[in-house]
């Protein structure tokens, strides 16, 4: 999967039009927008770092996405993973970047966390029986 060079993180003020997650306007919560996807912090997080990555067009099921949307969505997931790793997986103060990472949720102090330094849960609720409460992948 690849991302186009034009996909950059944009602050909410730069959005051209509102972004919806199902019926909810989430424009002000969006911290990443790509040509076909967006990411926002869950308003009711289950764990620290609980983020939603969604297609811009509201699709009910994963199989409804076009190949371009699907590629962009999972590329956005990888970008968000790297962002979360930089925030949560970093060396303890006074250690090198090759030491055991901490997952305290504090701001990194000189570390350059990578996804390989920790673990992630990546889940997709595809349909009501899978726990999907908003009809939007």
UniProtKB/TrEMBL annotation:
| Comp. bias (Low complexity) | 91-107
Q: Which domain of life is it from?
A: Eukaryota
Q: Which SUPFAM superfamilies match?
A: HIT-like
Q: Which PROSITE patterns match?
A: HIT_2 (PS51084)
Residue intervals passing through the bilayer: none
Ranges for the HIT domain?
17-137
Query: By its UniProt entry, which PANTHER family does this protein fall under?
Result: BIS(5'-ADENOSYL)-TRIPHOSPHATASE
* Pfam family, any one: HIT
Span list, region Disordered: 87-137
Q: What is this protein called?
A: Histidine triad motif protein
